[in-house]
Amino acid sequence: MSSPSAIRRGILLMIAGSSVFAANDAFSKLAIAHIPPSQIIAVRGLLAALALVAMLGWKGDLAAIRFAADRRVLLRGALEACSAVLFITALATMALGDSAAIVQVAPLATMAGAVLFFGSRIGVRQWLAVGVGFSGVLLIVKPGTTAFDMVALMPLGSALLIALRDFVTGRIGTHVPTLVVTLTTTAVGMAMGFAGATVEAWRPLDLLTLAYLAGGGITLISGHILTIAAFRGNDPAVIAPFRYATVACSVTLSAVVFGQTPDLVSIGGMALIMAAGLYTMHDHRKLALVKPAAKESGAA
User: Fold this and answer.
1) Neighbours of 44 (CB within 10 A)
2) For the chain, the helix, strand and coil percentages under 3-state DSSP, each to the nearest 5
3) Where are the domains of the chain?
4) Tell me: the pLDDT tens digits for 80-130?
5) Which positions fall inside the EamA domain (predicted)?
6) To which H or E segment does residue 5 belong?
7) Structure-derived torsion over alpha carbons of residues 179, 27, 16, 263, reported in degrees to the nearest 10
8) Is the CB of residue 112 less than 8 Å from the CB of residue 130?
9) What's the CA gap between 88 and 2, in Å, rounded?
10) What band does 243 get if pLDDT is binned at 50, 70 and 90?
11) Which of 142, 205, 207, 246 lies 20 to 30 Å (CA to CA) from residue 176?
């Protein structure tokens, strides 16, 4: 069991990582006002990939890059890249806070997918949590009203791809270093971005836009490092709920940087998504604690 100090450290690291990822999204939204999504993903990916290769070289793990050819690692990269394209494209017209909140439905989609496609079983309360979470998405998207925009479905598509990505990630062998998985994901996204140059008109990069992309590359890597460190030696069920700090940070950045504040209906939707996710994590943790206890009593 983790010590109280280790848990506090993990929580602080997760909040920091979530804040950094919110900053990464803000950099993407700033950049998309100047260049198309494919150019953002390509250039940001190139900068991040160079940094990751340097980190692997510093650690003496360059030989581990051979694991990048693993089909699961490549598939994860492709899913992440497609998710990024949808999310960044949505940022061109959607508020940062709304987009970030919708993407947080991914854990609920993962749970539902495990039941529908992999034969897992969940109870009525978990299904209700899934329903509440997706109801929150509807409050943000507002279908059937004049406020509805089809672009709002892009973050939802991004969330579903993230859920599928998480399934694939869980099947990647432990022999593959985390940095290699991150590097491969970055490289696949970069390649997809460069391929997008055939269908989108790229624009010359000025220093300001390049600074946005550099900030995006730095925050992308930093966010991964912080969140991975948060889980090391800690119970994921304790640390994971603090991932929802991303929503609060994104709403704050959206208001301060872009002057976009959510309406009361959207705030209600965000609350439902976070409440459903937090309840699901709490319920999962209770089950995880009950099972070992049941085994011990059975052994006695």
Assistant:
1) 29
2) 80, 0, 20
3) 94-172+263-300
4) 889 989 999 988 888 888 888 888 787 777 777 766 666 667 677 777 877
5) 9-141
6) helix 4-31
7) -130
8) yes
9) 37
10) confident
11) 246
Whole-angstrom CA distances from 147 to 5, 26, 98 are 46, 23, 13
CA–CA gap between residue 296 and residue 195 (Å, rounded): 56
Dist. CA 130–CA 233, nearest whole Å? 29
d(CA 138, CA 269): 7
Given a contact cutoff of 8 angstroms between Cβ atoms, the answer to whether 86 and 154 are in contact is yes
Task: Say which residue the tokens 């250039």 belong to.
Answer: 43
User: Please, what is the average pLDDT of the chain?
Assistant: 82
Residue by residue, DSSP assigns 220-262 as: HHHHHHHHHHHHTTS-HHHHGGGGGHHHHHHHHHHHHHH----
pLDDT of residue 299: 47
